Each structure stands twice: as C-alpha cells, then as structure tokens.
Amino acid sequence: MSLMVLGTASHVGKSTVVAGLCRALKNRGITNAPFKSQNMSLNSWVTEDGAEIGIAQAVQAKAAKVEPTAEMNPVLLKPRGDASSQIVLLGRPYRDVHIKDYYSETDTLLEEALKAFRNLEERYGTVVVEGAGGAAEVNLYDRDIANIRLARALRLPIILVADIERGGVFAQAYGTVSLLPEDIRPLVAGIIVNKFRGDPDLFSSGVGLLEKLCGVPVLGILPYADLAIASEDSLSIGDKQAGGSPIRIAVIRLPRISNFTDFELLERHASVSYVTPGKPLSGYDCIIIPGTKNTIEDLKVLRSSGMADEICRMRAAGVPVIGICGGFQMLGQRLTDAGYESGEAEEADGLGLLDVRTTFSAYKKTTRQVRNRAADAPPILSRFGEVEGYEIHMGETENRGCTPAFGNDGAVSADGLVFGTYLHGLFANPQATDGLLSYLAGKKGLPYTGAAGEGDPYDRLATLLEAHLDMDAIAALSRQDGTASFKTAGGPP
After folding, report:
1. Please, which residues bridge with residue 127 across strands?
2. Looking at the domain assignment, is residue 489 inside a domain?
3. Residues belonging to the active site
4. Residue limits of the CobB/CobQ-like glutamine amidotransferase domain (predicted)?
5. Does the chain have fewer CB atoms within 10 Å around its N or its C terminus?
6. pLDDT of 169-211, one tens digit each?
7. Cβ atoms 477, 42 nearer than 8 A
C-alpha cells in the first residue's frame, strides 16, 4: 500500500520528509515512487521525455532511485503574478487560467491525477504521496485535490508533518487533526515533529501531550538539518542567508523569479544574496540574473528601480554578469512579444550586454534535457568543461554574432565576462560552480577548495530519518493492504 504525507501548513518540510522516506524505504528494499497531485511552484524540472514537473518530485524520484516522470506531478501551477497561473497538465502546457476560474477545472484535474497515481502504484507498488500547503484549509475542502479530495479518493494512511521551529506545534497538530473531515480524520496514522533544534529529550513530555491530544502516535522528532536538497518554492527564499565567504554573488530577486534552485550549490560555497531591485550592487564579485515567469514585466522592474543601469555599471567595472533563461533574454538587445508571454503585444529594450534578440511568437514552450560542452572562452567558461541541465522557456533567441556559450545555446561576450544561457541546473554541475568560484577567488587572491565530493544527500537524509523516526512503523504502514482506521483512542472529537 502507499502512504500520504500531509502538513499542518506550507513550508513545514513535507517535501524533504517525502524525499527522505523515498530513500529510506528504497534502502529497506521497498520499491517506491513519489507523487503530488497538484503543485504550485515556479521551480520546475524537465524529464527525459521533455515533460515539466515540480522540482520537488524530481528530487524525490532521485531519492527513490527512479526516473522522474510526468505522472509524479500531473498538475503543476505556475503563477504569473497577476492572479493567473499556467496549468501544466501531465508535463505539457494546458492553459492559462485566472484563479477564480481554476476551480471549475478541479474535477477534471483530479480525475487525471487519480489515473496518474494508479499508474504509478501499478508500476512501483508503493507511492509516497505529498499533500500541498496545510491539510486543514476548511474553506477549500470541496475543491482541494491535493489534500482532502485526494485522501478521500485514495484512503491511504496519513502521516502529518508539523513544524516546531516556528512555534505553536500543539495548535498546529491538534487544530489540523480536529478540523479534518470526519471520514478523513481516522486515516491519520501518526505525526512527525519536524525542524527541532536542541536536545529532543527535552520534548519528551510534549510527545506525550501531542499523542493524548491528537489520539495518534508521534512517529519521531526530526532535527533541523542543512542538506543539499533543492527547495520547492519561493517561500524558501525568505529563509536564505548569505554565508560568510568573502566571495560575494548577487542573484537578482526578480518579482517572478523561477528556478532559484539553480544557485543552491553556489550558496554552499560562496556568500549568495538575493538582491531586490533597487538595492545597491556595489561590493559584489558577480551578478546573476535568474529565470522568470515573465521576462518583459520583470525587465520593466529592473528599469524602473534603477537596477538595470546598476547592472550595466557593474559590467563596465569588470564584474561578471551571468543570465539564466529569462535573465539571458534580458541581457540581449531587444525583446518582442506578440502577446504570448505577457498576454499583450509589446516590445522592450534589453540590457544590451549581448548581441542577441528574443521573440515570443507562439504559445509554445521548449522543455528538454541538455548536455553540452562550454565554450573555450576565458576567463570563466573555459573552466567549465561538459555540463548538463534542462531548458524550460518560451521564446526564441537569435544570436547575432556572439560566440555561443554551450554548443548552440546562449552567448558569451568577447571578453568572456558576460554570458547567458537557457541551461537551468548549470551551477548544479560541480565543475561549473568550481569554474566560476575559482575565477572569482583568484581575482581576490584567495584559495578555493572546490564543490565536488559532497556525497549523496539523500542517503544522509535517510540516515537521519532512520535515527529519529519509527521507520519500522512507517515501513509497516507502506505494506498495509486495506483501508482501516489508524486512529488510537483518546483523539480529538
């Protein structure tokens, strides 16, 4: 049988717990796959066959040692910032929809999600299901296809994750269990207390109180851990803090920033700050313009805030400037939208740092995995060698004379200090991170030791779960073959 992991709120650690369970179960000989019926995120991934899914499910698939597929995240919502989202259905663009109209689609989308789940369960045997946000959003119960309606259709044992770091763990857990519909509440099989700092023995009395209040066992207390696992969505940006490294990198925090997970390996080896447009850039050793869901609208923000001019001044001072996906498009001379990216026809001047032009002439998205060799362009790209990643973008970019940065992708300036690429995941390649940081360290006369050789974060996560959770009980739940009540006596009314 499969498992369902729900949360007391957004950002309590469901995605990480699911990744850990996928690897821990796999290590115990239980073949499994992850699943999230509906995900809302601008951090996405491309599968081998070009399907787009939430990055969390790709991470979880890696943890389970299976290949990511579209069925693992059948519905992906990509917010556009104007109360509308693009619906990606089974990995392909389906339609753009205003949020008030989205709920008319939920019956159809739930049906597609259930088909995807059953296909996964038939193929892998066990599926570890992740919910979305908080499980007890009472006003959404009639249309909550990620939590309540899905739980009602699947009747799986539910593990509830609560976040003790932010306080209020008793209210989180008891309130959530109490507010669940009467037919869902008995499915709750246990609680995981996540992000505990300090000695867990100090919370032993709290465990007893939680079990008495909620009527289900506490399956363990997970300590706060810093692991190299990709963040799911933009809520994680607020938790990021620049490290103490003397190498300082500014990633422009665009209003519609996407795939900021591109820079999480860099964060572990340099001081990476997410800088809001309008803030100064002086003192940074490198500037990165990331991907965005709406290139022209975010380019307008760079212009109006003065940051576009600031980036150009830093470039003139010899500071490297790198653009990824939408950031690459912004580095060019001109962007022309026939109404397919922003919904209306418009044109905008780019930053003019690369001689390329981008046109949005069709409602068409390029999604593919890529492996390419970096251009032999000193002083930075020549250090990269062969890299891999994935493209997710609308628009086509014409290179009007620059050397391509990677194969036939991207562009690099004549002095090699400005380059752009459509390649998401570039700096997840240790050789690319090492190439950039070794150059920046050398400019400052600093030693650099390298990003390679950090080991498998999923095995470290699984070891953490084995040490702090009752994994025997959780593994037993995954072998249940019926839809029984899991609640013990004494739970909430």
Report:
1. 33
2. no
3. 325, 424
4. 248-431
5. C
6. 999 999 999 999 999 999 999 999 999 998 888 888 999 999 9
7. no
